[in-house]
Amino acid sequence: MRFIGGKNLMLEHINEVIRENIGTVGSVVDIFSGSAIVSDNFKRQGMQVASNDFLYFCYVLARGTVGLNRKPPFRKLGIEDPIAYLNGLTREEAGIDLDDCFIYRNYSPNGDCNRMYFQNGNAIKIDVIRQTIEKWRTEGLIGDGGYYYLLAALINAVPYVANITGVYAAYLKFWDARTYNELKLEEPVIYSNRRRNQCFCVDYRRLLGREYDLLYADPPYNSREYLPNYHILETVARYDRPEIYGVTGMRSYEDQKSEFCRKNTVAGAFEQLVRDCRSRYILISYNNEGLLSQDALSEICERYSVPGSFKKYEYDYRRYKNKIPNDRAGLKEQLYILRRH
Ligand SMILES: C[S@@+](CC[C@H](N)C(=O)[O-])C[C@H]1O[C@@H](n2cnc3c(N)ncnc32)[C@H](O)[C@@H]1O
Description:
single chain, alpha/beta, Rossmann fold, 2 domains, seven-stranded mixed β-sheet, two-stranded antiparallel ribbon, 11 helices, 15% strand, globular, binds S-adenosylmethionine
């Protein structure tokens, strides 16, 4: 999934810096996993991975891919290809009332709602698929693996039919061509590293005390909180029918505000991260336009590292901006690596 601050273009650099400074890594924790692309990359390097994000849909993306080493068998369900089944399922067949369709009622233009996030048909499909996955789990027809595998497929499919320019903080006032496509789930790609990988959905501080070979931290770097930009994916993932407000139908997110997004808390947050980390190495992704200055971040890393172990790397990077990644001279993506003890 395309994700603000996603590190798709940085994976090779990340791997190279790890090879150069650490060599073989047995275990890693990715404490701000976002799209889970870096966790997946670590898994492909043979590391045992722990993945974490305090957004539930990010947890779902990790749990349904990184957390699995094979496609769930879906034996009890008795449906050979659940993805194809869900793609073809209608509301009538599923026996779901329109009044119970939360996404349809709140994010597609009908009745009292004039929000234009989805065409009506796709909004209903999201509701039908999401409710059916939940029902299968409640009835014991699928286990956790199958549940998160199917949810991850749904979360990945939604952006392809959403009437947005990349994030859900606003919808377009005309229908983008993409929205006329029918929502279609694809099989999540599962890679096996034959290790017991774990996924968490907690504040990163709860993981600092655990000992891994490497802690990878890719925190937000500016004041844009993640939840408002992805509120609909969070609601599809949780399907908790939250109270929503405003033009965009936002859910509240008091517990999901990040101290990395505020000028007056970001330095303390970085310091706590580096100071309280019990993993052997720390690798931080940041950039030269971050809320915390490079000098301040370097000083924190230097202060808590084994002498001589701290290094900083810098790369030209293409900025993610709405639909079009645009080259912005001057923006540098950075990696900070240090040995903690
Ligand atoms: C820059 S993004 C990570 C991008 C990810 N590396 C990728 O390539 O897709 C930062 C992530 O940190 C998460 N986050 C911010 N503050 C957090 C906190 N206190 N605890 C856990 N996750 C947090 C956000 O939800 C967001 O997904």
